[in-house]
Input
Amino acid sequence: MNLEALRGKLTYQAALLGAFALLTSGALALASKVTSPAIEAATAEDLKQSLTQVLPGQYDNDLSKDTLALPGPDGDVTVYRARKGSQVVAVVFRVQGRGYAGPVVSMMGVGRDGHILGVRVISHKETPGLGDKIEPAKDKWIFAFDGKSLGEPPSDKFAVRKDGGVFDQFAGATITPRAVVNSVKGGLEFFGREKARLLDEAVQDGQ
Amino acid sequence: MSTDYARISRDGLWDNNVVFAQMLALCPTLAVTGTATNGLGMGLATTAVLTVSNILISAIRKLVSPDVRIPVYVVVIATLVTLVDMALNAWVHQLYKVLGLFIALIVVNCAILGRAESFASKNAVLPSAVDGLMMGLGFTAALVALGGVREILGSGTLFAQAHLLLGESFAFLEMTIIPGYKGYLLMILPPGGFLALGFLLAGKRVLDRRRTERAARLVAEPSVA
Output
């Protein structure tokens, strides 16, 4: 049959579109099946990296499996718990503050005694060269949180200098460090509020 | 019918360059070229998609009715981009973290649909593949040039973090052009993209005009020698 004549027919065109939709979605389904284990592994590796960065201490369990979901400062927070033996020695969770150009998301690790083990910003859209000093690759600023806890400095001093607190801001960028400081303070308050549950070895998700 | 591959290559790389002559694909161009490395990565990913899409579109060009060609092309291109996106995420995850946001942008890169429509749908598979490759390389060159200018002026480095893109063996590409440079923020931010693109475009115009003038002079006064 003549292809030229066939191409003008409505049924041919409909069948052609249908065939392409079928072929391409088949290809995508196949590719998704092939790549999904590798993608999951990579995502898990990312999570593990961000967890270990804020957790310098020693622990012997798989953090990503030992989780608790609790209502936090902004919605439900997934808390990862580090154990040594059976005792919970530290917890890691995400906090989020509003920066200059969108949310600034950080991971923070808090020890059993309430001291901050480490804070790392994991995603932000702040101005390069001004606000991005919150990244450890650019500046040491983020390490100022290490060892701090609620009450040390006192609650009203847990802020950037411009707000009467103890944490430096950057020249030309106050909003970004303020977002991080306030979200970390929120995280510590969350820890204080939920301490009993967070550190209770018996409490487990799904039990 | 013989095909002039030299012509196709010159078109793709210079005369009809996607960015500098056709002025297409300016959205990804301006968005990713904060560093030369980002430009290179985006350019190479686009080249891959463009070449394969040209081959596929050319192979099916006799089957596709003109009336429904655009939806068919769009579906094919979108599928290709999604495949590249998944493959990068799965097997080159470090690079995906740098470029991931931009890969999805390739699907809206009008240069790809443009080449499908204006070249691949009218030409045989081999010339279409060459056209896709050359257009892609021209696009890559434009992005690297723009990224290089912005990176040198903006942060004083060139090809920073190239090892993430190309592997450790390419770490030698990472150069500090201006040591102790404090950086010039404007060039990294979007306005710097527009400024640098404007100057590069002007530069290409000057070069092209000199070339035509020289050619005209050679015709007017035949060589004395």
Notes: The mean pLDDT of chain B is 86. Chain B touches chain A at residues 34, 62-68, 71-72, 75-76, 78-79, 82-83, 86-87, 89-91, 93, 96-97, 183, 185, 188-189 (CB under 8 Å). The two ends of chain B are 39 Å apart (CA to CA).
